[in-house]
Amino acid sequence: MKKNIIKNPLIAAARSENLDKAVRSNVSAVILMEVKLSYLIKEEFKKNNDNKPIFIHFDLLRGLSNDVEAVRFIKDNINPKGIVSTKSTVLNAAKKRGLMTIQRIFLIDSKSLKNSIASIIENDPDMVEVMPALCGEIVNKLKKEINKPIILGGLIDKEEQIIEGLRCGADAISFSKEALWNMKIDKEIIQ
């Protein structure tokens, strides 16, 4: 997955109703938001899961609680590429079961930045998603403290915002705007 991000730093934030479109798009991976457990066991999801790396946003998953047993069930029965969560117990349980992890953090002030850095160091996720994406200049501060790929997500609705986030040093950008999923990234523009 990390190699996919280097080739293409676009990640779709999709829902079950537009997952097919996200999987067929130019993005390197998909974060599946607000999904029901009943959808994850359907053949439609399994086909999509075979075609592109899908990360289930565990905190928004309906039909299971956010606990270790739920992570075990998802790994054994669904087997996505990984999960996204803000919760340490979920992230650690997923890592123990061989799922990739993306820790989502929300930055609202300097204290939340400090607490997030401590949490990232403790949880050791594979990647970190920073919300909102429009705080790109914080990327360099985070990269000095943690050695993880940084994904910026939230409030993205223009190509310029994606390019700016990448110029700020983000490794990838996640966004739900379908019109941008097939955007081509010119490496020279972001340097």
UniProtKB/TrEMBL annotation:
Read off the Pfam families from this record. Answer: G3P_antiterm
Q: Which InterPro entries match?
A: Aldolase_TIM (IPR013785), GlpP (IPR006699)
Organism equals Terrisporobacter glycolicus ATCC 14880 = DSM 1288
Stored Gene3D superfamilies: Aldolase class I
Q: What is this protein called?
A: Glycerol uptake operon antiterminator regulatory protein
The taxonomic lineage of its organism, from the top, reads: Bacteria, Bacillati, Bacillota, Clostridia, Peptostreptococcales
